[in-house]
Amino acid sequence: MNNNDLFYIRLSFFFSTLICAVKFVAWFVTGSLVILSDALESIINVVAAAFAWYSIYLSNKPRDTEHPYGHGKIEFFSIGFEGAMILIAGFGILIQAILFFFNPPELHALTAGLWLTIAGGAANFLLGFFLVKKGKQNNSLTLHGNGKHILSDSYSSIGVVVAIVLILLTGYKWIDPIASAIAAAIIIYTGFKLMSKSVRGLMDEVDMKIVEELVTILKEQRQPNWIDMHNLRVQRYGSLYHVDCHVTMPYYFSLEEVHEEITKLDKILNSNFQKGSIEFFIHTDPCITSSCTHCQLADCNVRKQPFIQKIEWSKENLLPNRKHSFPE
Fold first, then answer.
1. Which of 25, 265, 273, 284 is deepest in the core (most CB within 10 A)?
2. How many Å apart are CA 161 and CA 115, to the nearest integer?
């Protein structure tokens, strides 16, 4: 985790608090439910930024005996917590919208509320865009998730602005609860997406995009001594990726030669992988007679069968625990 992430999340907390205050002022002067829904989501931004602040602090702590893989998993708790808070806010707004539809509130100073909402929404968009960009650059799930949430808040502010303009033009107060219900639906959808991402990360679900990127690097940088690779597994801990795999090498290699090949594999992947750093746990297998037909070593003095066909590596044959398998 990049130490600058702490600065960015502090920035998020400060501006989210300021934007939240602006939106509550807008609600106070107007009494509009749709503006209140926008303000309530901003409270979630503040709470989420505070939790994200702690998660980044914790994920920056070095490994210890109780956490041998580090503290990076806290990021998935962070986005899960943020998703849960968003869901609570969304359902709360939806309930209020239903109640207010039958009893619309009195509205005041909508023009002032409109400009305050525009200012808050624009600030949220700039902050969210900045955090998403930094999250991608630093491979930080927490920054990226926090930025995505703030961006969704800015998008819902567009709906709030449209609703206020329509009320000003038509005088129909029922537009207020209808618009807040639509905003609640968007908020609930965002919350479910974040919760889903959190669960997938905590359950160590395979990220196929990451696997495909690793497979591409392995195919481009493949060495003749790496006869076969299989049982590839990838787990994420913050910006650290833990990779297990089995590599088949010539059975006559010394321990020093095997270590040299593993070190070479480690350096190749870490120097070409852009999403973070990789920690390897590699199990080496000695080649067997059936390996000869797929072995590309031209100067092998113990070859028992002629070379027939190269096994093209792909996620279909690198992920399963099957030696010398072709993609199905």
1. 265
2. 9
